[in-house]
Design brief:
The chain is an alpha+beta fold. It has four helices and nine strands. It is globular and about 35 Å long.
Length: 124
Amino acid sequence: MNIPEDLKYTKEHEWIRIEGDVATIGITDFAQGELGDIVYVEIETEGESLETEEVFGTIEAVKTVSDLFMPVTGEIIEFNSKLADSPEVVNSDPYGDGWMIKVKMDGSSADGLLSAAAYGEIVG
């Protein structure tokens, strides 16, 4: 299982890459593996400001639909438009081209996120 050291993680299996006050967010390799073949990613919150742990969208796999949770507080400034036509990219490249949203963070809302080692302990 791939858990990059340079990212932060949530217990809900989202990853976050912070660059200045912009965070790129997606789901982890573990999460995409558990979901199976991803067929649809729905993000209707672009342009909205959401709090940590609020639902920012849903991801649909062949057998299930799961909510996506905000790991930080901020405004969703971009949705990865590639996922509209090719949601399976989340399966093949969850930490690269399979990213889901970019968020302009409000202040220091990244506190409480997990390190790669701490996330690795959760998923075993």
